[in-house]
From TrEMBL:
Cofactors that this protein relies on: Mg(2+)
UniProt source species: Paracoccus subflavus
Keyword Acetylation found: no
UniProt keyword terms in alphabetical order: Hydrolase, Nuclease
The organism's place on the tree of life at top rank: Bacteria
Molecular function terms from GO: hydrolase activity, acting on ester bonds; nuclease activity; nucleic acid binding
Name assigned to this protein: VRR-NUC domain-containing protein
Residue ranges of every copy of the VRR-NUC domain listed in the record: 6-107
Record flagged with keyword Nuclease: yes
SMART domains linked: VRR_NUC
Length: 131
């Protein structure tokens, strides 16, 4: 059986593995399953249930909590673009003082940690301009 290409999921798995290695052991790296990928009426019903349970449109793929800091990471493939709801989420959490970053690789994610002042068990890349 051929596995369908999932570039964002593959990137996200690599990022989660790197963050779990780099961050202190008590750090939390969490993915919020935010949408149903099942088409049709059954998928629409399931999505409606999730929205009723608190799913928020545009919510970031990963939340990193460590050392009193919170960082939201939106994972995209090299060619992926933000949806409008993701831009609104980015602007909303930024206005509330939380960190947010668009990441397309492990290096981007580690750089985002450094940009937002996270401490690490490994040497993080030098600060960079956020994408």
């Amino acid at each position: 059986m051929n596995r369908r290409s999932t570039p964002e999921a593959d990137i996200q798995r690599a990022i989660v593995q790197a963050l779990r290695f780099a961050l202190p052991r008590d750090a939390i790296v969490h993915h919020c399953a935010n949408e149903v990928t099942e088409a049709g009426p059954r998928g629409a019903r399931r999505q409606a249930i999730l929205v009723g349970m608190g799913v928020h449109a545009g919510f970031a793929d990963l939340i990193v909590i460590s050392g009193g800091r919170v960082l939201f990471l939106e994972v995209k493939s090299p060619t992926g673009r933000l949806r409008k709801s993701q831009e609104v989420f980015r602007d909303t959490v930024g206005a509330q003082g939380f960190g947010w970053a668009l990441v397309r690789s492990v290096d981007d994610a580690l750089g985002a940690l450094a940009d937002h002042g996270f401490t690490s068990r490994v040497q993080l890349p030098a600060r960079r301009v956020a994408p």
